[in-house]
Amino acid sequence: MEKIATPSIPVNRQRDLEHASYDAAQAELENASRAMKDGSVTDTQALQQGKLQSWMHDWYRALTAKLREDVAAMKAKVEGQDVKVHNYKTTASTGMKDPALLLYLTLLPAEKLALITVLEVMRMAGSGGVTDGMKALRGMLSVGRAVETEYRADTIKDISGVDSPQWLKTIDPTTQRPSRQLVSQVWQRLGHQVREGKQGSPSNDPAIEADWRSVWTPSWPQPTHVGVGAFLIEALLSVAKVTRRGKDPETGEPM
Question: Which of 28, 4, 29, 1 lies closest to 171, judged by CA?
């Protein structure tokens, strides 16, 4: 069996790795929102950054609630129940049928789907510059791929364990967190080992081997990335709001 090299990261640094996860990003947005509301941010640059993070936190909370509502409505519709959830729409714009889309949207909790969407959309918008913004198709692909990567990373960690060479191999030594490329490499290698049978199995534990055989799947096709990304971005756009305050052109007083 091909051995997976372990990066030079001690196992007892798992807490540091978790600090760089989506959980840490969520905590950072919450802290920024709290600081903005209690008026403890005064530095101009920090104020601008804090204001943006506060908005992102509000979007994250609103999107989490919407996804819970929409996924519940979609599940009810798939099961043949009457859908009476406010603002629920069909998923025709995603190019995916409800049962297929529901399968992917329930791989991760609504909170994590919402956070991934907010962070990925803001990252993509920033990378294109203020005037260029984010190309729609590129954004959908990016969000869909981010959801797939997070699902794979969670699965590797849950099944193989945080002490396993499989999990540690996903960690980028520079960022100290799982990277999309490394997660993909480990996932494909695990799939190859599962298909090879016992001599190429990812673990000597029969229970873990059985778990991997039951959950491993090939890479998602591009239409799935686009469909999942389109649904999540459309949901975000429906709830993301920014409070703007103008001035009266004649008096200069805030409006």
Answer: 4
Residue 20 burial (CB count, 10 A): 15
Distance CA 149, CA 143 (A): 10
The closest of 177, 64, 68, 56 to 120, measured between CA atoms, is 56
Task: Report if residue 53 sits inside a domain.
Answer: yes
Could you tell me if residue 3 is inside a domain?
no
Domain total of the chain = 1
Q: Has residue 4 been placed in a domain?
A: no
SS3 content of the chain, % helix, strand, coil (to 5): 65, 0, 35
* Single pTM value for the model: 0.74
Tell me if 12 is assigned to some domain. Answer: no
For 157, the domain range is 17-239
61-99: pLDDT as tens digits: 999 999 999 999 889 888 887 655 545 555 556 678 888
* Token code pair at residue 252: 């200069």
